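task queued by scheduler; priority normal; single chain, no ligands, no partner chains; default sampling; output format set to C-alpha cells
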Amino acid sequence: MANEKALYEDSLNKGHSYLWDQRWVEAIRAFETAVGISPDEPAPYAGLGDAHMGLTQLEKALENYKLAARNSRGNVIYLRKVAEMQEQLGRTSEAGKTYMALGEMALSRRQLNEAMDNWHRAARLEPNLLRAHQRLASIYQRQGAVRSAIQEYLSIAQILQAQGENEQAQEACQLALHLDPRNPEILTAIEMIKQGQAIFEKGEQGSASSTGVTGMLRQMAIENESGEWDADKQEAETAVPVQDARRLAMEHLAVGLFADEEEDTDIGKLQRDHLISQALDYQRRGLVNEAISCYEQAINAGEESPAAHFNLGLLYQDKLRFEDAIHEFETSLKEREYRLASHFALGESYRGRGRIEEAIEHFIHVLQIVDLKTVQHSQADRLIELYENLADGLVTKGERDQATAFANALVEFLSHKGWEDKAKQARQRLDSISDAGMMILGDVLTAGSEQVLESLYLSQEYTRRGMYNTAVEETYRAIQLSPDYLPAHIQLAEVLARQGRREAASRKFTTVANTYHVRGDVNSSITAFERVVELSPLDLSTRARLIDLLKRHGQIDRSLEHYVAMGEAYYQLAQVDKARETYQEALKLTLRASDKGWRARILRLVADIDMQRFDWKRALTAYKELRRLDPEDERTAIALVDLHYRVGQNNEAIRELDKYLIYLVRSGRGAKVIGILGDMVEQRPTDAHLVDRLSRLYIQQKRQPEAIALLDKLGEAQLEAGHTESAVKTIEKILKLNPPNENSYQQLLAQLKQQLR
C-alpha cells in the first residue's frame, strides 16, 4: 500500500514537471499511471486535461477536466477549466450553465465579486439564461448600482417578451421602474410591450424555458420590497475609507460654520456658510441634486475647503457625473486626511468612465498607502518599488482582465468594517511566507484567491517538517489556482532545492527570473538569478547574465561579488586564463564601487595567479598598485621587494625596502625591522645591501658578535663567488668591530689585497 502511494506521488510529480517543461506526451503517460493507481483522485485527471490542452486536443482535455470536477465533487478550480474548455469549443450554452453554477458556488462562499464575474460570463455566453440576469439584477440593486440593475431587468423583460410571456415581461419592467420612476427607457419599454412591439432589435433567441419565471419575478419583487434602495442604506455598501472620509468632511464643514472669523462683517463668508449649511442638510436627507447645487454655489463663491470638494465629488458620483467627480477628487487629493479616500474615489470614477488604466493607478495608490502602515520604515523603499512593478504589470503591460480582477478584489477588501485589522493580519501572513523576498498586500489581491496564499503557507510548513512530496503537491495546487502568480513558482523551486533536486530547482528559478525581468521587476529577477548560481555555482552562463543585469542597473558592488565567484569557478575548472580575464574585467568596475576595498581585493587575486604562474613582471605591476593602495600592508611591501629581486631590479628592491622600513620606524613599529631584514638576509645571504642594513642595526643595538657573524658569512659567500673586492670591503667592516680573532682577519685581508695587485 505504501509502495502504491509512493508510486502515485512520484507519477504525479513527474507529470507536473513534464507539464512545466511542455513535454506533453511524457506528462500524459505519467498522469495515466497515477490514474491507474488512484482512479478516484482528481489531480491526475486535471493534469491529463492540461497535457491534452498543450497538444490542442480540446475534446480530450474537456473530458478529463469533467472527470477531475466529478471526482473532486465540484471543486471550483476544475469546474472553471470545464467552463473555459466548453467556451473554447464553442459550446456556449453548456459553458453558460457551468459559469452559472460557479457563480452560485462563489456566492455560497460570500465571494460576491467572483460570483458576479461568473454570472456575467454566463449571461454573455447564454443571453437567455434568466437566472444569471436575475442574480445580477438583485445584486446591483442592493449595491445601489441603479443603472446596471435596470439594464438587467430590461434584459429579463426582453427574454420573456421573446418567449411570449408579456405579462411577466411587464412585471420585470415594473421592478426596474421601482428603482427610477422617471426613467424614459423603462417607460418606453412598458409602452412597447403593451403595443406588442419588441423592446429591442430582435436577435437570435434561445429556447430557454419559462417554467418558474412567475415565481422568480415574485421572489425578486419581495426582495425589492424588503430591501428598497435608498442612499442612507447603500452607504454600508461603499468602501469603508470613503464612508469615514465623508463623515469627516461633513464634520469639518459643520465645525467651520461656527468659526469666529469676522462674523458680522464678512458677507461672503456668511453667504458661503449658509450654502454649506443647506448642502449638508440636503446631503443628509439624500436630496442629491439640491446638495450638488448648494455645494457648487458655495465653491463658486470662494469656498476652498477640501471637505467641500470631496463631498461634491461623491454627489457627482451618485449622479454618474464621473468627469465632474474626478475634478473634485483631484482637488481633495492634496489634503492628507482625504488622500486615501480620494484615490479610491478617483479609481471608481475612472472605472465608471471605462478608463481602467487610470483607475488601477489610483487603486494601487490606495493599497500602497494602506500597506505602508503595516511595514517598518526601512522596508518602505522596497515596498514602493514593488507597487510600481505591480502598476507596470497591470497597466503598462495591458493585463486588462487581471487589472479588472484586482480592482474588484480591492473594492471587496475595503468594503468591510475592520479592513485595517485585516490588512495587518494579511501582512503577518505575507511575512510568514516571504522567504524568497518581500511581499506586498497587492499579492493578496493578485493571487486570485486567499486559497493560493493558504496553499503556500501549508507548503512551507510541510517543507519544514521534511514532507517534501506533500509540499510539492500543495504548491502545485496554488499554481493551478493562479498560474501567473510567481511567488507560488518560487516556493516550488525552494521545495525542489530542499529535496536535493538542484537541477530542477535551478530551471524553475531561471524561468522565474526571466519572467520578473520581462515584467520589469529587476530586483526580484536578480534575487531569482542569485538563487540559481547559489544552487549551481559552476553555472557560468547564468552568472554572466546576472553580472550584466547588476551592472546595467547600477548595483556595482553586488556585480563584483559575482565576478569574484565567477573567477573562482573558472579556477576550480582549471581555466586559469579565463579566471584572470574575469578579474581583469572586474577591475574596470572597481572605480565605480562604493566599497573602495574592492580594487585591492581583486588586484590581489590577479597577482596571486601571476605569482603561481611565475609571471613576475605582471605580478610586479599588480603589487605596485597594491602598495600604493595600502602602504601599511606588510605582505604587499615584502612581496614587492621580492618581485623586484626576481626581475633583476635589485636597486629598486632596496629602495622599496628602505621606504617600508622607514615607514615602520616612523609609525612606532621599528621593532619589526630586524625580523624583516633577518628573513630577507636568510633568503639572500650574499646580498651586501641587505647584510649591511641588518649589521648596522645589530651594531646600533650593541650586538657586535651577531653583526660580526653576519658579515663573516657574507665575506665567505663573496669569496666563494670570486668577488674579491667585495670580500675586502666586508672584512674591513668586520675589523672595525674589533673581532676577537682580529689577527686572522688581518692576515686574510693582506692576502686578498696581494691578490688584487
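post-processing summary
- Confidence is low (pLDDT under 50) at residues 201-237.
- The first helix runs from residue 2 to 20.
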